[in-house]
User: Fold these one by one.
Assistant:
Number 1:
Amino acid sequence: MDKRRQSAVKVLKEIKDGSTIMISGFGEAGVPNTLLSQLKDLHPTNLTIVVNSVTRPHSLPHALIEANMVSKVITTSARGRGKGLSKFEEKLREGEVELECLPQGTFSERIRAGGAGIPAFFTPVGYGTKLGEGKETRNIQGKDCVLEEALTGDFALISANKADRFGNVNFSYTQMNFGPIMATACTTTIVEARLLLEEPLPHSHIQLPSVYVDYLIESEETDHGS
Amino acid sequence: MDKRRQSAVKVLKEIKDGSTIMISGFGEAGVPNTLLSQLKDLHPTNLTIVVNSVTRPHSLPHALIEANMVSKVITTSARGRGKGLSKFEEKLREGEVELECLPQGTFSERIRAGGAGIPAFFTPVGYGTKLGEGKETRNIQGKDCVLEEALTGDFALISANKADRFGNVNFSYTQMNFGPIMATACTTTIVEARLLLEEPLPHSHIQLPSVYVDYLIESEETDHGS
Amino acid sequence: MGLDKSQIAWRAAQDLKNGSVVNLGLGTPVLVSNFVESSRDIFFQSENGILGVGPEATQKAANPDLVDAGSRKVTLIPGASIFDSAASFAMIRGGHVDVTILGAFEVSVSGDLANWDSGAADKAPLVGGAMDLAVSAKTTWVLMQHNTKDNKSRLVKDCSLPLTAKNCVERIYTDIAVIDVTSDGFLARELIPSVSEEELRNRTSGNIKLASDCCVLNAPNITS
Amino acid sequence: MGLDKSQIAWRAAQDLKNGSVVNLGLGTPVLVSNFVESSRDIFFQSENGILGVGPEATQKAANPDLVDAGSRKVTLIPGASIFDSAASFAMIRGGHVDVTILGAFEVSVSGDLANWDSGAADKAPLVGGAMDLAVSAKTTWVLMQHNTKDNKSRLVKDCSLPLTAKNCVERIYTDIAVIDVTSDGFLARELIPSVSEEELRNRTSGNIKLASDCCVLNAPNITS
């Protein structure tokens, strides 16, 4: 079994117009820049992207939107930095892109639920707020809750530190963030890692088991330890 | 910060009659035998125990039932080994103990939900079966589901391999099983470990973060590596 | 004479695809791993938190912290990983296990499975991971004796025992046949030479047909 | 002159209990960690997956893989752990964070919090972890300027901006006072010497009283 691939392009070509893509990363840690930059060149369109933040105008998730590849964004942080509008905010105003904004814990839990076979769950977060509007509510164990459904995707693009040929993955520090859950929630998971190993990772180093990973690509970033 | 304690008895005395106690372990791996044997001597009564299995007549979870300390058992595996009745099965027949039997994934997920602030969730498992009877049902994303509520407890008794004075915990192989989730779902978590360390565990070895652990007791078992 | 347990397990092992993730139930199913060479890259999942269960440990190498869901002391294969029970059932319930192979008391013509409650008086229930596995795996296979000791069919029109899950079994391996559960009822794919079509019908409750390309079911002699 | 941001943060830091788990929001709240000595065993949680955030990293030691929720390159304290985002919000939503300290646009007399949507035209929303933290932490404190630049009170009868969570704020630290949210309305616990009770009332919307034991709010000069 060897999930390592030489060409990211060959793998990314499986992403068709209209796909839902989950993208790992929090701040600058764990963003799959190697994969995103190649995806931008391939230019599939009408994508739904699931990503924690699109606030930074120079980030690659934002660049996909600027390049007219994205029709819907599911995120926790959509506001562009500064007082002016970001390109994404302009497109939002013009109705060219759809937005679903979620509390970050609900965003995480919906993705986890998607991977864990939990079709829906109740959470107290968002109840009585604009982000809870239109959602079914119920008081459970004394807490007012909203009902949230599982979120799944076609492709997860994940950034990691090391991976073995079986597809087992190890992250460096907070590079982990959404990577492990997004990998579980998508039909096909592509991981870029700085180090692709022939030998198996020791079981105690594995933070994402092989079953969730389909393809491994060498990242163009450098190793920052773990 | 030092969560290590010399005397298990002193800590276990906090467990009052009527408490709900979660007990880790799958097969013989990860059963907190040091804590359970002392708890048996202290003999609190009217306990609800949450434990994966009470099939083995010589195990300490079963011994708590035999010693008339338990009024309710929440488990996945209640059937005694062999054709005859176990002491637990006899008590069940006489109505001396109440039983809630759950599919193991539902058992795990209800405990995880208890620790993760998810008051309830839908799962397809158990739908249309005796274990789904009386539960609210709904079809979500094409799947017939039952609604399950979070499970929480007063005390978690967990067996581990190593722990540092902050309360960070490392398990050995499949000793992990229900330990990490039970620790999150209980008000007070007591961990027995074979090795209690003054120095902090490296972050990459921590499988249960310190915030979930209240007391550490040295286990009377021997180290089997990790 | 029908197949013995090892031969039933051998037959099922032949149908596993290389590279797949497989969970084996207690009893006959766990024998399947004896007939899978390591070169096939099949990863056995154990619901107590292992992906990549290897052969049973020798007494010398046995580690009481490393057990499978049947409490056997086991080893790990290269590339194996270990996780907690919530993560394990997230893996199972999330549909990441390709095949679950379970024992059964009864399987109905619509694929309903009864394998967790034998109905014995005063015996307490034991469900373990059976419901999660049967509902959630991409494919559910059953290994069982075709008939009970008192000659009743375990393949039935409707299950009489409490259900594990509805409409989940795709294939049944018995001591006399390999049978698919189809929208048209039971369909025998393979039959041992000593059993005729008529005998198969007589020994099976519920609608059963022979596939037009029904083969002879032969298994090698296995000495364990 | 009221307190500056560092002084507000300093004041809040005095109320943290040793050994507690604390999440700090962006802006003024994150400054609180500057005023907590390591001997106090306070563990700062960062919602991107850290328990035990240490001081900001020196440029030399900075690791781009080790950042906090405000994207600062940080260090770890002894005993720190790292986990994924689902585990991090399980920790938060499960009530395992003792105190969350957040910035705010408005806090209502019943403890409603508005801190995620300023209502600026055409600007997109940014909620991050604010709702999870405000709903779920055992205690929610707010650090904010008492008044807006055009002299409106940020303490209000009812929030005019979209809510983060209802009925969650327990204590407010402003540039002029420390105020508890009680069932009887705002209750000033401490007030800076240059502000009179009357001025406090004038600068506050919604019912505010002085506690019978209301103290003088003094903060040291802080040079950063």
Number 2:
Amino acid sequence: MAKSKKEKNQAISKEKLLHMHKLMCDIRNFDDKVNYMVKRGQVPGMTHFSVGEEAANVGAVAALSDGDFITSNHRGHGQTIAMEIDLNEMMAEIMGKATGTCKGKGGSMHIADLDKGNLGANGIVGGGMGIAIGAALTQKMKKTGKVVICFFGDGAVNEGSFHETLNMASIWKLPVIFYSINNLYGISTPISKVINIDYNYKRAASYGIPGHFIEDGNDLLAVYEKFVELVDYVRAGNGPVLVESITYRWYGHSTSDPGKYRTKAEVDEWKKKDPILKYKNDLISKGLATAEELDAINAKSMESVEASVKFAMESPEPSLESAYEDIFAD
Amino acid sequence: MAKSKKEKNQAISKEKLLHMHKLMCDIRNFDDKVNYMVKRGQVPGMTHFSVGEEAANVGAVAALSDGDFITSNHRGHGQTIAMEIDLNEMMAEIMGKATGTCKGKGGSMHIADLDKGNLGANGIVGGGMGIAIGAALTQKMKKTGKVVICFFGDGAVNEGSFHETLNMASIWKLPVIFYSINNLYGISTPISKVINIDYNYKRAASYGIPGHFIEDGNDLLAVYEKFVELVDYVRAGNGPVLVESITYRWYGHSTSDPGKYRTKAEVDEWKKKDPILKYKNDLISKGLATAEELDAINAKSMESVEASVKFAMESPEPSLESAYEDIFAD
Amino acid sequence: MKNETKVMSVRDAIIMAMSEEMRRDENVFLMGEDVGIFGGDFGTSVGMLEEFGEERIRDTPISENAISGCAIGAAMTGMRPIVDVTFMDFIVYMMDNIVNQAAKTRYMFGGKGQVPVVFRAAAGSGVGAAAQHSQSLEAWFTHIPGLKVVAPGTPADVKGILKSAIRDNNTVIFLEYKAQFNMKGEVPLDPDFTIPLGKAELKREGKDVTVVTYGRMLERVLKAADEVREAEGVSVEVVDLRTLMPLDKDAILDSVKKTGRVLLVNDAHKTGGFIGEIAAMIAESDAFDYLDGRILRLAADDIPVPYNARLETAMLPDVDRIKKYILKLVNKR
Amino acid sequence: MKNETKVMSVRDAIIMAMSEEMRRDENVFLMGEDVGIFGGDFGTSVGMLEEFGEERIRDTPISENAISGCAIGAAMTGMRPIVDVTFMDFIVYMMDNIVNQAAKTRYMFGGKGQVPVVFRAAAGSGVGAAAQHSQSLEAWFTHIPGLKVVAPGTPADVKGILKSAIRDNNTVIFLEYKAQFNMKGEVPLDPDFTIPLGKAELKREGKDVTVVTYGRMLERVLKAADEVREAEGVSVEVVDLRTLMPLDKDAILDSVKKTGRVLLVNDAHKTGGFIGEIAAMIAESDAFDYLDGRILRLAADDIPVPYNARLETAMLPDVDRIKKYILKLVNKR
Ligand SMILES: Cc1ncc(C[n+]2csc(CCOP(=O)(O)OP(=O)(O)O)c2C)c(N)n1
Ligand SMILES: Cc1ncc(C[n+]2csc(CCOP(=O)(O)OP(=O)(O)O)c2C)c(N)n1
Ligand SMILES: [Mg+2]
Ligand SMILES: [Mg+2]
């Protein structure tokens, strides 16, 4: 996570530029690998992938500082990796192992590390929004200066919880960024079929808060710069904002998805807009990094993903007794 | 109910003008009477009054035609009387008698007559909104040409159901008018404290539908004319609208309300804006009716309310067995 | 077609039941998230969009409150909607509409109106979907007067019960099991084939022990019953409720009076589950006097459903545990 | 103050409990509709705005989903919110947050995090508020692993249990009864007075019959117990659960083993209610072998709550019916 909120006004350090690349590679490689394993029946449960949405995730989280929070959703791998949750523990979790982030009890849809500010992926569409405003209320009441990013999809914007929580956050001026990653579909349903306006960020007006738009959610620096601005705004006590970025998921909605609702041509078109490739070309053309540097990072990322699989494979299954623990706090 | 949707363009018949006066008087007299009885412990349960809001209710319903529908809420007496539900049966219901609209099983909060297009008062804030769009969906699927008015308060606009149902009605172009009667408070809470915009009708923009405003909801003709326009628009298949009118409740929120949240001065100010008095003066000044005519109507209304009390008092209690009936349809 | 049957999956039985009823009655329609081109989260409406079109196979926004409310309002005004809830866990967002509206409408309004909606909810664990996607919540609804609740356990029963639910003039919560969409069995092809709500079926007759069950656990109970009969000569009577509400008390009590021993099995959390109600109903009835032993229950353990497959499996009654409990009742172990 | 008591209403006991805890711990705060200047729909926060201010006595929009979600998120990050649900019926809009989030958070996340929220819900009938404002829905929550559920029945217990609920690190559903806010009793003034969750209390000791109850029905059960003792010499042991979850099984079973006869009483709908769980628990335990008769239940009838006062009253167990059932158990009638 970024350490300084002033960064917007400075040049971004090379270290940070490369680190963001690493995180995007991690997401891509991690989810490619999980998808590979899903196809071979090596992953026991439901998963949702962030491939194609790397920039939309990394750019947002990169604008946070230590101690800030996120809430995430079913498609949480991207956010979670961006929050620097350990890949080994994530892979172990997805494989249901005792060493996983959630001891194998949560799985892909619930990867979280509460100690690291990740208040949970959430299997319920719209289910994390209340948690996000509550976390923001704590920051406000305790005057911590910390902020929350609440991640959700385009489909989630029609849940009642969206309406209620944006309104409450607005009237209480809570430090929360509502962030809709618009990948054009909720499962099979195109967003255009389920809202009667062009973009959802415009709904911010209903709550008297600013609505922001990131037209190219595959442009990491655009996402990052917008989020630096928004984090500043929110941290300064101005109340919440709603922001929407446009991106695309390359894989099916979840583990099994015949994909009849979109054409191969459309998917291919979007694959051309690969956020990682774009970022790479960007950095190279601006002379900020070399292809070799970037490829080396990717190679290392692939290694760490392979290592995470090894870690997960070698990790023990949770004991049967462990199923009966962790229900109540003392 | 009005029989013609063209009426907007014609002069309103005198019969109709006087009938609307009668309905406002009925609401006033009925609720004054119920309030009187509540204070004396003659009414067994919770009630909410429409006094002060007569024009906002009557003007809307008067624009409907036979076969159209409404859904109403906890403050439903006004709408229900406007829908021409029998006063005797209403009073009997409020007194819990077997002859009541709901056989004494529903009470004030659930007065309805499904046979007459009143799909129910509703004790759940926001609870009638889904029913309203469902009724509208039926009209659309069956091509009946009928429309639905969904009544709710200013407080209800922050329920998730508001968001979800307006959106669904919009994308499906359902023939429903969402009508928020803004009496400035939800119980004790001023609307200004719970939304961060000036008026809620502006939220229509989030759903790509028209938002309308009736600044003086105590002006019967203004309400009526706006609703004639909206009913036309909706009936023509243009999809839903959201409309908001400003009015005020003279009594407390419900049966017991210490009223600390608003000043006597404020209440008095609003009593000066009496919708019935305003309408009366309007009609007289325009030469459309005489004070005598109007007073006679009021006198008759008071009689019918007294008669309803007599009817209710003389009506039998429901039998104990009746409590065990009407749970399932055959 | 009258007496023909065909082997098909629960999924296909659901599609067949809905399709037949939609052909029969133009007021019937299906709504829910991704029921159209996607064919339903569990494939339970594959092909229906093609036959019935977008008006009657109605994709919705992700708005469970509006979906359920809309269905109820449509039902009050003459339609007969079927709602695909998908994962039963999402019914949390439909509680007002189901419990405060649909269940109470007719009563509150003094006998006017009816709300013929079927909520099809995919219940139970078994697909590695973890705590928020694996619940069997029927006990919430059996507690609310005005609702019917059904949970058939074979493809044929699924077809017959679903058709009756669609024809019923009340709101019906229909449980289908994620883990069993591919379960196969003979299904009558007759479009007039229905199974009345409120009638349990003796899936096995027996004299030593009564096992009462429904839904997902039926398969395991039958297997256990057959195995103990085979191996130990214990004659087990299996009462398959199929309908939980209205409950066929007589079928249960008659069987208990006959055998004097009873085991109750379902896949919901044990504490507060519907089989507790059955135990209580037996214990307060005259069948109590016929009991030769405790009323035993086997249900899911009282823990959120874990992701790990081994843990997920372990928390549910399996055939072995069911057998063990049956034998315990007859003092064979 | 240590041993002083004062006669006060349930309402005042609630205010006292919350106020003491708010003085003791700055993380505790109250939120809900009209809790501020209005003092709560049932007057259960009158005067608190004046002492604690708007930040800690937090009026909300009519947004039950956001209220409950916000409370949970605040709790996960260090606060200890109390939510005034007002009418328990409105909890329908909080189900996702309570059931899918609060109850499962710690488990899903492998033992990290805790959700110390108290949901205070005004349950039951008795004020002429009809079907949508009169439900006792505790059975929904006792069925969900990860939640605690309490329902004290005297002003002192209300104070002691509410304070423990606020101090508990888990989500607690706290039932208070609309019909009993004015009920009076001696309440300890000691701000350190608490009653542990999970412990039932023998409100009467006896040897002939056990009556298990909680919440609103306690008052009637005690009256019935005293009257049958007086008039018929029947010695009734009254087990007041106070906490439903975690359930004090031992207290129940010990008493049943002692008396051999048991009546269960609550004010929720009979079918699927929590006392069914207790009956089932007894019937599967070793206490079964001590039973001298059926396990009887008295609860609200299975109908939506009617508006008419006579009907509303008739659907609930009253002192006479409780007495009749007690006498039935000892074969006196
Ligand atoms: C309350 C609820 N309703 C439905 C679902 C099933 N579901 C899971 S993901 C999803 C689509 C979400 O779409 P979107 O918000 O756009 O996120 P995306 O998957 O595209 O990232 C749906 C309908 C759910 N998990 N929770
Ligand atoms: C879901 C739900 N939450 C809360 C309540 C309690 N309640 C009844 S009326 C009311 C205020 C409604 O305000 P508004 O919508 O402005 O209507 P008004 O009473 O002013 O006509 C509240 C909070 C309820 N009945 N239902
Ligand atoms: Mg999407
Ligand atoms: Mg209002």
